[in-house]
C-alpha cells in the first residue's frame, strides 16, 4: 500500500496543468454571419445628407473652442488689461532661439536636436583681437556666411553678419531643454575664451577655411572641373613636376 501511494504522488508531481478549457469554441456558420449582418444593416440609419460630415463636425468644434476663448477674453478683459505690458523690440544683434516640432519618432535624435545660430557682431567681444580669436576657437562652427536654413532670415544678414556666423548644434541629451542649455553653455565658453587677455592663442594665426571650401565643393559636384591627366596620372598637380633648366 505504501509503494502504491508513493507512485501516485510522483505521477501527480510530474503532471502539467493547463488553464485553457478543453471544450472547443463554438463555431458560427455562414448563415449565422449573414443573419447578423442583416440585423446590423437594418439597425443602421441611411445617410440622406441631412447632417454634417465628420470633417464638418470637427470644424464646428474648432469654431466653438475659438468662441469660448473670445468669451473668456471678454469676461476677463480688465484682468488681462492690468497684466498687459508694452512691447519692447529686441536689441540689434540679439540671440534668437527657434524651436521646431518634429513629427518623427519621439526618441529620435532629430526630435531632440537644438541649433543655435548667432552673428559674431551680436556677441559681447572686446575688440578685433577677441573677434579673430573667437573664429579660431570656433573652428568649423564659424562660417563667413549664414549657414543653412534652420532659422528663417529676417533680411538683415548683410548688416549683422559682417564678421560671420556661429552655429552650434546639440543632440547628445535626451531632453530638448538640456540640449538647449548645452548650446548656450558652449557659446558662453567661446566668448569667455575669446575675451581672455592671457590666452595663449595668438591672433596672428590665419583662419582655417577648409571646411568652407569643402562644403562649396560638395555643393558644386556637378559643376566641378574635370581633373587633368598629367604624365598619364589623372589629377597629378603640375606644380609637382620638376623644373627643367634650359641650356
From TrEMBL:
What InterPro entries does its record include?
Ribosomal_mS35_mit, Ribosomal_mS35_mt
Q: Where is this region: Disordered?
A: 1-23, 140-161
GO molecular function: any one? structural constituent of ribosome
Cite the Small ribosomal subunit protein mS35 mitochondrial conserved domain residue spans from the record: 89-240
A GO cellular component annotated for this chain's UniProt record is: mitochondrial small ribosomal subunit
Per the record, the GO terms for biological process are: mitochondrial translation
Q: What PANTHER family does the record tag this protein with?
A: MITOCHONDRIAL 28S RIBOSOMAL PROTEIN S28, SMALL RIBOSOMAL SUBUNIT PROTEIN MS35
Please identify the protein, giving its name as recorded: Small ribosomal subunit protein mS35 mitochondrial conserved domain-containing protein
List the top taxonomic levels of the source: Eukaryota, Fungi, Dikarya, Basidiomycota, Agaricomycotina
Amino acid at each position: 500500500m505504501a509503494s502504491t501511494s508513493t507512485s501516485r504522488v510522483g505521477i501527480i508531481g510530474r503532471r502539467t496543468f493547463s488553464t485553457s478549457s478543453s471544450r472547443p469554441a463554438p463555431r458560427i456558420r455562414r448563415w449565422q454571419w449573414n443573419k447578423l449582418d442583416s440585423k446590423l444593416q437594418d439597425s443602421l440609419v441611411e445617410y440622406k445628407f441631412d447632417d454634417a460630415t465628420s470633417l464638418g463636425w470637427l470644424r464646428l468644434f474648432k469654431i466653438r473652442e475659438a468662441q469660448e476663448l473670445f468669451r473668456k477674453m471678454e469676461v476677463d478683459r480688465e484682468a488681462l488689461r492690468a497684466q498687459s505690458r508694452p512691447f519692447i523690440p529686441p536689441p540689434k544683434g540679439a540671440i534668437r532661439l527657434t524651436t521646431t516640432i518634429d513629427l518623427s519618432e519621439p526618441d529620435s535624435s532629430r526630435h531632440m536636436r537644438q541649433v543655435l545660430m548667432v552673428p559674431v557682431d551680436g556677441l559681447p567681444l572686446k575688440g578685433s583681437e577677441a573677434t579673430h580669436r573667437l573664429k579660431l576657437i570656433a573652428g568649423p562652427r564659424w562660417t563667413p556666411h549664414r549657414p543653412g536654413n534652420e532659422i528663417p532670415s529676417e533680411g538683415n544678414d548683410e548688416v549683422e553678419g559682417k564678421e560671420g556666423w556661429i552655429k552650434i548644434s546639440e543632440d547628445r541629451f535626451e531632453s530638448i531643454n538640456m540640449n538647449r542649455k548645452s548650446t548656450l553653455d558652449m557659446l558662453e565658453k567661446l566668448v569667455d575664451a575669446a575675451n581672455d587677455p592671457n590666452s595663449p592663442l595668438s591672433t596672428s594665426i590665419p583662419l582655417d577655411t577648409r571646411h568652407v571650401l569643402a562644403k562649396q565643393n560638395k555643393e558644386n559636384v556637378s559643376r566641378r572641373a574635370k581633373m587633368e591627366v598629367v604624365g598619364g596620372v589623372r589629377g597629378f598637380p603640375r606644380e609637382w613636376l620638376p623644373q627643367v633648366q634650359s641650356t
